[in-house]
Write a structure and sequence with these properties.
Blueprint: H1 2-30, H2 34-61, H3 65-76, H4 84-92
Length: 93
């Protein structure tokens, strides 16, 4: 399940970057909200999946509150989810 979580974290990060740095500027600079509508729903679904999987993994792998908090914090920082896999590997050692 950890590998699936890493995949979801990568996809969530890509969708967040596309939404934040492509769709939102197009919406406000060109007045075209279509890209936000297109990317918003997949990003929302991936974000919910990311948090749900983080909760499941916290229980399954007995993560500390600190580890869980960092994983959740990385989900809201731009480019943060790209470091989740590296962070979790460091925590396993």
């Amino acid at each position: 399940m950890i590998n699936f979580f890493r995949l979801v974290s990568l996809l969530e990060g890509v969708s967040y970057i596309l939404l934040l740095f492509i769709a939102v500027p197009i919406k406000y600079m060109q007045g075209n909200p279509e890209y936000v509508k297109m990317l918003g729903m997949p990003h929302g679904v991936l974000f919910v999946a990311y948090i749900a999987l983080a909760i499941l993994l916290k229980m399954e792998l007995k993560w500390s509150n600190k580890t869980f908090g960092i994983v959740c914090l990385l989900s809201i920082l731009p480019f943060g989810t790209f470091f989740v896999g590296k962070f979790l590997k460091k925590e396993e050692v």
